[in-house]
Specification:
Blueprint: H1 12-26, E1 36-38, E2 48-50, H2 52-56, E3 62-64, E4 70-71, E5 83-85, H3 86-93, E6 110-114, H4 118-128, H5 131-134, H6 141-148, E7 154-158, H7 170-177, E8 182-184, H8 202-213, E9 224-229, E10 232-238, E11 251-260, E12 266-277, E13 279-282, E14 286-287, E15 295-296, E16 301-302, E17 304-305, E18 308-310, E19 316-322, H9 325-328, H10 334-352, H11 370-373, E20 382-383, H12 396-403, H13 410-426, H14 436-443
Parallel strand pairs: 1-2, 3-19, 5-13, 6-7, 6-13, 7-9, 8-9, 19-20
Antiparallel strand pairs: 4-14, 10-11, 11-12, 15-16, 17-18, 18-19
This protein binds NADP nicotinamide-adenine-dinucleotide phosphate (NAP).
């Protein structure tokens, strides 16, 4: 039900987030409608698509917490059978209703991930962890079956900059180092020298220590391996001309060698190399849905100030708010996104009850993101929402789809959660996730 797969027991942050959501959902004033897409059609044909204009008459306040759902693509690497965005793999291994294709892992020996963020490391761990270890957690059985047939032996994680600029966090890197059945290929010690001689931050020092120590399994001691390929930027992918057989012939990824310019940007050195690989996965980050109203293409997310949405002229759109990645872009970890949500909730309350002492939780010194930190004002705003809503409840389209079982409510969510945990218990795992069709069949008839 969550968007990522857990390969370990639930972290305290995830537990905290789930409990907060449950607390809010117990309030009878909250109604949850799942499987509804606003404006953009979903890849799930059962989903309900509702124009934003239909919502507007029914509510006096609107908060976008729609995240960043569109993967950034690389201009030199158009999607093909040999090149997929990371989101396609993540959707496959989480059984997301978008029905992403199953990767032909039984024919793939070498995977190249472009980008060195946490999503890349998540995918690498998924490909390199023995399925018997994953089986305890919430990885769906059909996914485990495909992973059990996987021919993947090496995962290259390619970054256009160096180890001190890599986007992954040390926690995720440590998990890579501790993989039980894979080892990291030794790094060139020259790659671990800070190029500008500047003092390292705490995070950079920790990364350096981990990289110097290397993986728990020494190179050469395991069949499966992985590498961090720093200072490489893709320039193209030459697809094979031979037809695929039991193991598909490799494509050839061309890479420009890079170095850092004074502003820490990657620039080509003039040298190039070629990497034979059976699958390229682009993992370059995400942006918000560009057709969303008040989306700013230059930012890649909604135009906001202090959690309030702004129109193209920079005026506040009265009573319309955004929080998390929809407001500030795809960065930061769960705790920061939650604190941003609390801060925006406080802004909504302050706007609704000016002069009153209203606050959800103290923000403290957690990084709440630029959206919630900065000012913004309701004065001189543009109105798109009514001051009083038309009747009680959601638009008729939503009520109708709810009766047809296409829209899910919180009771459905809880029922599926309990059933997934029950099915998991029978198999000795944390949960057995249901695909959308299974969940729908389980819930019917309402
Ligand atoms: P990300 O952290 O923004 O990393 C994107 C990577 O792609 C960077 O290495 C970036 O390199 C590279 N890149 C971008 N454009 C490129 C280009 N044109 N050519 C070559 N490389 C390019 O994105 P993400 O991995 O999708 O993660 C998004 C957010 O989710 C992050 O805040 C992450 O921490 C969070 N997340 C957290 C977890 C967790 O806590 N377990 C799991 C998943 C995601 P440059 O730095 O050079 O631009």
């Amino acid at each position: 039900m969550a968007s990522t797969i857990r390969r370990r027991a639930r972290s305290p942050e995830v537990k905290n987030c789930t409990h907060k959501f449950d607390d809010a959902a117990e309030d009878p004033r909250l109604r949850f409608f799942g499987n509804v897409n606003i404006d953009t059609p979903s890849q799930n044909p059962d989903a309900v698509t509702l124009p934003l204009s239909s919502l507007l008459q029914h509510y006096t306040h609107l908060l976008f917490s729609t995240g960043c759902t569109v993967p950034l693509l690389h201009p030199a690497l158009p999607p093909s059978a040999y090149c997929v965005p990371a989101l396609s793999l993540v959707h496959w291994y989480t059984q997301h209703p978008s029905r992403s294709p199953t990767p032909p892992l039984d024919k793939i020996s070498h995977v190249t991930l472009i980008g060195q963020g946490n999503v890349s490391l998540d995918i690498a761990r998924m490909l390199l962890t023995p399925p018997s270890e994953l089986a305890k957690y919430d990885v769906p059985t059909p996914v485990l079956d495909v992973l059990a047939q996987s021919a993947v032996e090496h995962v290259s994680i390619v970054g256009r900059r160096g180890p001190f600029q890599a986007a992954f966090t040390t926690k995720e890197l440590r998990e890579m180092m501790n993989l039980t059945d894979a080892s990291m290929v030794s790094l060139d010690p020259a790659a671990l020298e800070p190029s500008d001689g500047a003092a390292l931050t705490r995070q950079q020092s920790r990364t350096l220590q981990l990289l110097q120590k290397g993986s728990k399994n020494k190179p050469g001691s395991t069949r499966k391996t992985w590498s961090l390929d720093f200072f490489r930027s893709p320039t193209g992918l030459v697809l094979p001309s031979e037809p695929a057989s039991s193991v598909r012939p490799p494509a050839h990824l061309t890479l420009a060698h890079t170095m850092l310019d004074p502003s820490m940007r990657a620039v080509p050195t003039g040298e190039t190399s070629t990497l034979p690989t059976s699958l390229v996965v682009t993992s370059l980050g995400h942006r918000a849905e560009p057709s969303a109203p008040w989306y700013d293409p230059a930012l890649g997310h909604l135009r906001t100030l202090g959690g309030r949405v702004l129109d193209a002229a920079g005026r506040t759109v009265r009573n319309v708010y955004a929080s998390g990645w929809a407001a500030v872009g795809a960065r930061g970890v769960l705790a920061g996104t939650m604190m941003d949500a609390y801060a925006v909730a406080d802004t909504i309350l302050r706007d609704a009850f000016p002069g009153e002492d209203v606050k959800t939780v103290p923000v403290g010194d957690v990084d709440v993101g630029a959206g919630a930190r900065t000012g913004g004002t309701e004065a001189d705003g543009e109105d798109v929402l009514p001051r009083t809503a038309e009747g009680e409840g959601p638009p008729v389209e939503v009520e109708k789809a709810w009766r047809e079982g296409r829209v899910t409510d919180y009771a459905d969510w809880r029922a599926i959660n309990a059933e997934e945990v029950r099915r998991g218990r029978e198999k000795g795992k944390e949960r057995e996730r249901m695909a959308w069709e299974e969940a729908r069949a389980f819930l019917a008839p309402r």
